[in-house]
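General statements about sequence and structure are easier to judge against a single worked case. For one protein, we set the task of working out the structure tokens from the amino acid sequence alone. This step matters because it turns folding into a mapping between discrete strings. The amino acid sequence and the backbone structure tokens for this protein are reproduced below.
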Amino acid sequence: PLSQARFVTLLFGYPISIFFIIVNEFCERFSYYGMRAVLVLYFKYFLRWDDDLAISIYHTFVAFCYLTPILGAIIADSWLGKFKTIIYLSIVYAIGQVAMAVSAIHDITDSDRDGSPDNLTFHVVLSMAGLLLIALGTGGIKPCVAAFGGDQFGDHQDKQRRTFFSVFYLCINGGSLLSTIITPILRAQDCGIHSKSKCYSLAFGVPAALMAVSLVVFILGSGMYYKTKPEGNIMLKVSKCIGFAIKNRYRHRSRKYPKKEHWMDWAEEKYDKLLIAQIKIALRVLLLYIPLPMFWTLFDQKGSRWTLQATTMDGNFGSIVIQPDQMQTINPILILTLVPIMDSLVFPLIKKCGLHFTPLKKMTVGMILAALAFVCAAVIQLQIDKTLPVFPSASQSQLKFLNMGNTPITVEFPENQLNLAAAQASDLIYKPQEGNNEIRFINGMSTPVTVSSAAGHYGEIEPLHYSNYSEIKNGRATFTLQSGSQSCEYSKDFGFGGSYTFFIPSTLTFGPNCQESITESVDIKPNSVHMALQIPQYFLITAGEVMFSVTGLEFSYSQAPSNMKSVLQAGWLLTNAVGNFIVLIVAEIAKLPKQWTEYILFASLLVAVSIIFSIMASFYTYIDPTAIEAEFKKKVHDDEDDEDDKKKELQKSKEMEKRDSVSSDDEDKKYVQTSM
């Protein structure tokens, strides 16, 4: 027996090898989700892509991450085995993460040392190559690691195996949670060799290091693993069987051939009847998968559109400042909270109320909750849009006025007039990026003034001149103003996304503090819609995930034949990939001018799809695949017994005929002898 062939060292009743696998999974998930958390901001602010291109590439990458598991499963089952597949593809994965970290080092091509890369082609090519390798790596090992961990347990260790899978999925959410907290903090730091900018290289470098640790830890456990040999991939066999049935049906499309009960029955000429019956059961479930991609279309936008939405919001939570990409942390926190609450409280309560809340009904509710989450996002976007300044279009121009005097002035236009208060200026033509602020100083004195702070040096400003706009982070900043031997300090608390002009009046008197003398003009108001308002939409999308994803996997496994679970797992991952491609298609076709209208469009599409899914679900009959397989095997066995009985009867009949023939010959011989 298989269990007798295992020689493993146990610790607390568990194989020691699984501890290496659990650490490996935690580090790998930290690496993946940490890199993905800052990816869309890297596209927009480092590579300087617009929102649509950044989101398109982001969702293309995610889609490939859910397509490659099918390839990984085929390689593991048909060629290399799980262990070697994990090793080789983890190396590919680590190389991809290193490539991403290197692509984010701006100093490599920053020849003018202004803090931004000059040769974007180099960074784009290297980052795209890195993402391709990461997609191959993370997707390729996804179906192998959990299954490889399950292989380490013997037939008598069912309880330990179940505990392992619980801890395994806890590590996935733990890695995701920590990485989405840490990597945005690393990204927000300023780093560089010659000039400073946002530290995307560190935000990608730490996940790369974690992936290297993941690989080393997995290799260290090599001598303790139980390694199964490749036994062939069921997905290939299923694909060939379906292909043969379709081809055979097409060859016999003429009316002279009798019809079969099911089109898969045309494969009976070549394939086992049990396999065909199992495929029929799996196809019933896969048919229900057709509407499911629309859920993932909405769900995965929390890492793209919702993150960009957060960049236009206020992340000040008192003593804590939340980065826009850290809002994604809410999802794993709520997952860890809602799953036990749903399982132990909500679902049992619904059952006690006498409601028949089937898995397919839960999935429908999950879709509705995701649609409501996007309605919330649209409402928030409407509030954000009210706070955004209106900038000139491509066919318009903007004229700026600066009042350097101490009294208000009026500027008259042909059809309008502008009243400009003392020491005031007109606006910028863009909203500051990444939640930062833009500031400048205007020197109204008759002598040059030098302005500096801990964040940077703003140079010497000549009389009646102004400095260029400079970027400054949120929080309190103190500026030192110096003219000759005289100096004073000016402090201000900055929010997110504001633009300010500071006037140094001609009447400025230097001293210990010039706080009251400096006049502040708000060119663009800071973000005023708080990030906390995103929490309801994250709650709804996560509740929808628990209802839809967790229940969907449970339903698929309960309705799948014993050897078709990997086929349905591949189909489930495929729905996620297709959902991410739908984001690209809808956004490209719709071309909606306002972001809130796009949110409403996606919500409407999901509601329509959920109605279609509920209708399809109403025609579905729940089955017990194990019982059907057992009944089918019994029937086949009975048919074989009947066939054997018929063969035995035929053989017995032939033997009796032979004996009768021999007896008749003996009688004839006796008769002949008597006659003679």
User: Anything to note?
Assistant: The chain has 17 helices and 19 strands. The radius of gyration is 35 Å. The first strand starts at residue 10 and ends at 11. Residues 1-5 have pLDDT under 50 and may be disordered.
